[in-house]
Amino acid sequence: MKIYKNFEDVPALKYAVVTVGTFDGLHIGHRHIITRMRGIADEKGGETVVVTFYPHPRLVLYPDSRSLKFVNTREQKYGLFREYGIDHLVEIPFTREFAARSSEEFIRESLVEGLKVKSLIIGYDHHFGKNREGNIVQLRKFAGRFGFFVEEIPAKFMDGIAVSSTQIRNALEEGNLVHANRMLGYEFSLAGKVVKGDGIGQGLGFPTANIKTGDADKLLPGNGVYACRVRYEGKTYQGICNMGSRPTLGSGGFSIEVHLFDFDMNIYGKNLTLFFIAKIRDEKKFDNLEELRLQIGRDKLKALKIFGEM
Fold first, then answer.
1. Are residues 156 and 235 in the same domain?
2. Is 70 found in the same domain as 209?
3. Is residue 127 part of a domain?
4. Higher confidence at residue 35 or residue 126?
5. CA distance 199 to 207
6. By CB count within 10 A, which of 117, 173, 222, 310 is most buried?
7. Is the peptide bond prior to 207 cis by the omega test (within 30 degrees of 0)?
8. Residues 268 and 225 in one domain
């Protein structure tokens, strides 16, 4: 996959099959769009193009929404686009000046003149241009005027609810990883570096790796204990992860700690990737460390049962 920061750098393409959006999460609804794009491109001997934006438009247009966190980091999103067979990614720097362009200007200058779009495939709720004025009705009008094909992909429903990035973010914040992963079509993950902890887990018989993530905009699951898979240097291990403030220890600050099963290596300073499977329980304050130790043992047994049922 080739990546560009503006339309001028994109070379002449063979039958450009284009989609536009932010694509946070790259969930099963997004996959439906990409599958359709890939099918048209293969049929026409063309190339697939994703047009996306950075930073996220909401962060530029609504500065008070700085608390908004995202399912994927940029690197994760790039990796998924590659995995799903996208040929070209155009990541446009999103500014207020860019947002002020009308929907017609965007279609004519960026997609028609810039990419020579032949097919435009969009999601059911797609809006674009100044004040989000552009919609499927306008697109069909522009398609006739500028000579390209446009297709709207319907919503993907799960349990009677349309799958969306917002629904996934809500599920993650609630700790409902089973539902979030079903909507994503893959296991939610986060990556980070192992940093020095206080060693209390080691004393309890459950040594933990303390994880520091590198992206402040990355959404984290709600506080609690989770069954997770951990990837380290190409191998995958089972484990349990605690997200929260460790109330029994009175540390106060937020931490991410993971205990890997059947693992005995010094990994300080190393990078791990955690894949969240299911929530085991809410975070809880225990009266003493012995109660905490017994509960961690129960958490491990429950996690092993979850893994055994997969």
1. no
2. no
3. yes
4. 35
5. 7
6. 117
7. no
8. yes
Tokens 């190339």 correspond to 47
Q: Is the pTM of this model over 0.70?
A: yes
Domain count, the chain: 2
Token pair 């946070």: residue: 24
In a domain, 182, yes or no: no
Domain that holds residue 245: 187-308
Residue type, 132: R
Distance CA 257, CA 209 (A): 5
Distance separating alpha carbons of residues 89 and 170, to the nearest angstrom: 28
Q: Output Rg (C-alpha) for the chain, integer angstroms.
A: 22
Secondary structure, 3-state, 133-153:
CECHHHHHHHHHHHCCEEEEE
CA-based end-to-end distance of the chain: 33
Say if residue 249's pLDDT is above 80: no
Please report where in the chains the tokens 């996690």 appear, as a residue: 303
Amino acid sitting at position 40: I
137-178 confidence digits (pLDDT tens): 889 999 999 999 999 999 999 989 999 999 999 999 999 999
Q: How many C-beta atoms lie closer than 10 Å to residue 50's C-beta?
A: 24
Task: Report d(CA 69, CA 180) in Å as an integer.
Answer: 15
Pick the closest to residue 190 from 303, 295, 275, 96 (CA basis): 275
The confidence score (pLDDT) of residue 65 equals: 66
